[in-house]
Amino acid sequence: MSDFLLIHGSCHGAWCWRDVIPALEALGHRARAIDLPGHGDTPCPIEDITLDSYADAILAAIDAPAIVVGHSMAGFPISAAAEKDPARIARLVYLCAYAPRDGVSLVDMRLEAPRQPLLAAIEKTPDGLGFTFREGKLFEALYHDCPEGTEAYARERLCVQAIRPQATPIRLGTNYASVPKSYIRCAEDHAIPPEYQQTMTEGWPPEDVSEMPTSHSPFFAAPKDLARRLDRIARGPA
Questions:
Q1: What is the DSSP code string of 114-166?
Q2: Residue 31: domain span
Q3: Residue bearing the bigger pLDDT, 135 or 149
Q4: Given pLDDT bands bounded at 50, 70 and 90, which one contains residue 236?
């Protein structure tokens, strides 16, 4: 049995893992999800939300070495957490996520991708400190292959995403490098281009990279398949 800690992406919360948690538990694992500061049931003034506060929240949720799964933008905070305290993290799993490089911000990485499909789907808040998803753009950007009702379920729960953590260059060193890593790419992703997910994983051992035929939201589109893949990662090579 492994302990999984599941970390959501931009504008989401622990709620997006609702179908994956029972699927992992059915496979014999312990699975939990948290709300990062400013998301879900963890309110925080947007001006106080930082990449460090995200990383600290992840580490505070770990009571024994865990496999930490980060979706989308959560690739940055899970990596920052590993750099702060690698002993608490058994493995990092990037789920169609940004796999960061030292000294680069998530905004930098988004701009270096060959396409910017997400830009048409988001808009800044009037204060310039956050962004939200535009009406009418959510389905195509995130949930185009998900079960009926997914978009409505998400729309009621999505929140403002603080920009500051995504504009902060990450600092990664030997602590981060020491933690094992896996990546699950999504072939029909309309948020992070699949070809850029390939670029981010160039040079990774083939056994540490797999691909799902889904959108940017495999936790809704194929939760049981995702759980099986995470189970295989936890069990290691046969």
A1: S--TTGGGEEE-TTSSEEEEPTTTHIIIIITTSPTTHHHHHHTT--PEESHHH
A2: 3-235
A3: 149
A4: confident
